[in-house]
Amino acid sequence: MSVTAPECEGDVSPFGISEREVEAISSRADPAWNEISVTPCLHAPKLSALTGTELYLKFENQQYTNSFKERGALAKLLSLSEEERARGVIAASAGNHAQGLARHAALLGVKACIFMPRRTPSVKVEETRALGADIVLEGDNYDAASKAAAARAGETGEIMVHPFDDPHVACGQGTVISEMLAAVPDLDVVVVPIGGGGLAAGTAVIGKRIKPDLKVVGVQAALYPSMLNALRKTDRPCGGSTLAEGIAVSEPGQLTRRIIAEYVDEIVTVEEAQLETALCLLLNTQKTLAEGAGAAGLAAVMAHRGLFRGKKVGSIICGGNIDTRLVSGVLMRDLARHRRLARLRIELIDVPGQLSIVSDAITRADGNIIDVAYHKIFNDLPAKQTYLDISVEATDADHMDRIIAELRSVGLNVDFANY
């Protein structure tokens, strides 16, 4: 997409709100903004060397609710009149938007009601409730909860706060790039996760107001290329279980797609394995926990190196809310992917002493045994033979090769049984 520096007619901004409102949001003029952290934007030397860039990370996972969503929620709340605040606000969300809106509504003395799908994990429900919001569990998914919330807003007069397709929300999200450019004024490009498009729209408009030649690259999960479909008139499949659930949006916003079409330079997609690798790199090299969407920027820099090589790049770690069991699984899968962990299947004669032969060989190769499982019944081997599945830890892929070579050197038939 070709992009020019943003221009406005009169005092109306690209968001459709006044330039005065944009300035008030961008400058964080209201004291209520003191409750939102100016999160660090730090150079990542190890990842820079790995990606061939000069990479800076914006740690939005360090917000109070561990997500950038607080920014847009507060911007919307501050735009309301006293009469509108008295009516209260309502939203549909099972994640970061719910907590961001709940927190800042409570701080401003505004009643908030959040509709969540019935299948929302109880921990998310309780965390949002603890921030002061009333919770209504409705529908089997976000779309159903959103329709129910809109119906109630129509009946009660409560103000609906959309998670992304709202001018104040999108503008509020753009305060992220204001802080990034204050910290690193000569950024060449910023890479931004895109779900519904609020963060990307705000980043593109506000970023190019400050630095007109700033390039903005959006990134979507390959399973949810909804913004690409909307802008390029394609019909790529959209759906499935993605690690980046925060950007798993099937229908992007109308306002956000208009802004992104004009101000975002490029949109790329990343595969699930690339998201997993990026999440693990952030945890292992930066010692920071990102949710899948928060790792999308780094995944894009690694997957599309030609767009970023040799440039000063900013990547937004947009959130850090991820289930700890999922993190554990991703980390273990990453070890397997790099052959630091493997499950080996070994054919044995079903006689005493065979396990000692296996363990002695692995010990000689300095491997570490994690677990062992026999399969005497469920196999197609002759009755006097059996399978042994053994999980082994190595320092790297070459070390794993040495372990396997040692096992084979004593006459054992060894194969991988990872899948």
TrEMBL record:
One of its GO terms (molecular function) is threonine deaminase activity. Keywords: Lyase, Pyridoxal phosphate. The keyword Plastid does not apply. It comes from the Bacteria. It catalyses: L-serine = pyruvate + NH4(+). It is an enzyme of class 4 (lyase). This is Threonine ammonia-lyase. Residues 343-419 form the ACT domain. Its EC number is 4.3.1.19.
